[in-house]
Write a structure and sequence with these properties.
Low-confidence stretches: none
Radius of gyration: 16 Å
Mean pLDDT: 83
Number of helices: 2
Strand content: 15-25%
Shape: elongated
InterPro entries: MTH677-like_sf (IPR035954)
Largest sheet: 2 strands, antiparallel
């Protein structure tokens, strides 16, 4: 499990619809990453949840991969890379959202 990160973003007005969209996009990013990078076809499951708690967002990314050739492939490495890829994507989206909300408040 990754360490919590504090991004100091303005998320007070984040909507449930935007959180749902973010979760869906993150799931797509992880799926795409695994489809493109796994050396052997494998089954994978992805769970993304985003929950607003007071002034924070709790984001959980849970990825599981099943496949053959476990002695040849470190699936955990691919899982970690997929999660980092999605995490970076989510951070960028949240920064964009925060800056849009901040710009809207000063106008």
């Amino acid at each position: 499990m990754g360490k919590p990160r504090k991004l100091n973003l303005k998320i007070n007005e984040i909507t449930p619809e935007f959180m749902e969209e973010l979760a869906s996009l993150a799931e797509e990013k992880i799926s795409s990453f695994l489809n493109e990078n796994l050396p052997f076809k494998g089954d994978f499951s992805i769970i993304v949840s985003i929950e607003k708690v007071n002034d924070s967002l709790n984001i959980a990314l849970d990825v599981g991969v099943r496949g053959g050739f476990k002695d040849m492939v470190d699936y955990n490495e691919y899982i970690e890379k997929a999660i980092q890829y999605a995490r970076k994507f989510l951070e960028e989206k949240l920064k964009e959202y925060s800056s849009e909300k901040g710009a809207g408040q000063t106008a």
